[in-house]
Amino acid sequence: MKHLWTIVVFGVFVAAFTSCSSDVDLVADGEDVPIVYALLDSKADTNYVKITHTMSDGNALVAADHPELSNYPGKLDARLTEYCNGDSIRQIILDTITINNKEDGAFYAPAQKLYYTTERLGINTAGKQYSYKLSVVLPDRTLTAEAKMVGSDGFYIRSSVADFSGGYQKSPQEILIVPAKNAGIYNVHMSFTFLERRTFDSDTVPRTIEWPIGTFYLSQMDNQMNQDAFVVTYRPSDLFTSLQDYLGDDTIVPGLRRYIVDDPIRVTVTAGGENLSEYMYLNELNNTSISDENIISHINGGYGVFDSKMTATRTMRLGGTTVPELMEKTKWGFKYIGGHL
């Protein structure tokens, strides 16, 4: 079970992510094991909650791959209670939906049964702090979980220029990130988008390559500060390595053109809540299985993670001599045209 949930939580957090029961013995052999995961997002049009189960003496990975073993029948009474500054504001009843575009992974695909709401969730401000309590009524118990909302309008990427000039010789460069409220973990990605025309008479289409910068716990970020901003570093060589992997040793053919615009770099930072951070860290540290007494869960009456996330993005222009250095790689055929995507 630990291996299943390590896969699930990492997947939910990189694609994006109250109390922790570290001494629990919820199940006996042959007993039903409820599992819940959700990462609420106040900026999302739709928020999803995955409610599933397995048997304590079965193979969790096998059960997760079969909807008839993984899903509870019918529709459960599942709801969110919204709190603002500690006061209960409203209840949101979750409905069920079957999505049909889930990629292969720990759970069955491509169809997937989820609980969801299209009600917009609260965004923290200076005067309003939101949190949510999940309640799921099962035949033999009620599952509950609580989470503070991550972030506010004050969570953003301060840096505006990405400098890859010097490539493999240049030292790591900095990205400044103003922290998200209630966040305990951050995942950072970069991407480079260019325009490409394959032949004289073909359309010009955008092409994007991306690469990870890393996943960082709050304790790591706190040690790397520039005034009120976290400092994350990236290697200038990453752009050229990623392009080499993506384009290879292209031979320029008649009609092929690649164009660089003014702001082709995008940095994406996803901040996850304290529950998610604790779950990921402690389960890695413990290397536990479902039968171990010290498995980490944030679901009262079950297992899994209930938390929130927020994503900040920013496009950046290329600094230093990055543009001319890319154009010097004649095998790739880059030309600078300016403008925006």
Written overview of the protein:
The chain has 341 residues and is α+β, with helices and mostly antiparallel strands. The chain folds into two domains: 2-151 and 274-308, no CATH class; 156-268 and 314-336. It contains seven helices and 19 strands. Strands 1, 2, 5, 6, 10, 12, 13, 16, 17, 18 and 19 form an eleven-stranded mixed β-sheet that branches. It has a four-stranded antiparallel β-sheet with strand order 4-3-7-8, with no helix packed on it. α1 (2-13) runs antiparallel to α6. The longest helix has 13 residues, at 274-286. It is elongated, with a radius of gyration of 23 Å. It starts with a helix and ends in a 5-residue tail after the last strand. Residues 1-29, 59-63 and 288-294 have low confidence and may be disordered.
Task: Give descriptors for this structure.
alpha+beta, elongated, 19 strands, 4-stranded antiparallel sheet
Protein structure class: alpha+beta
Total separate domains? 2
Query: How many runs of DSSP E, i.e. beta strands?
Result: 19
Q: How would you characterize the largest beta sheet?
A: 11 strands, mixed
Described by its quaternary structure, the protein is single chain
C-alpha-based Rg, rounded: 23 Å
State the low-pLDDT regions, or none. 1-29, 59-63, 288-294
Net shape: elongated
How is the secondary structure organized here?
Blueprint: H1 2-13, E1 32-41, E2 47-55, H2 60-64, H3 67-70, E3 77-84, E4 87-93, E5 95-99, E6 112-117, E7 130-137, E8 142-148, E9 156-157, E10 161-162, E11 173-178, E12 183-197, E13 205-217, H4 218-222, E14 225-226, E15 229-234, H5 237-247, E16 257-260, E17 265-273, H6 274-286, E18 303-318, H7 322-328, E19 334-336
Parallel strand pairs: 1-18, 10-18, 16-19
Antiparallel strand pairs: 1-2, 2-6, 3-4, 3-7, 5-6, 7-8, 9-11, 11-15, 12-13, 12-16, 12-17, 14-15, 17-18
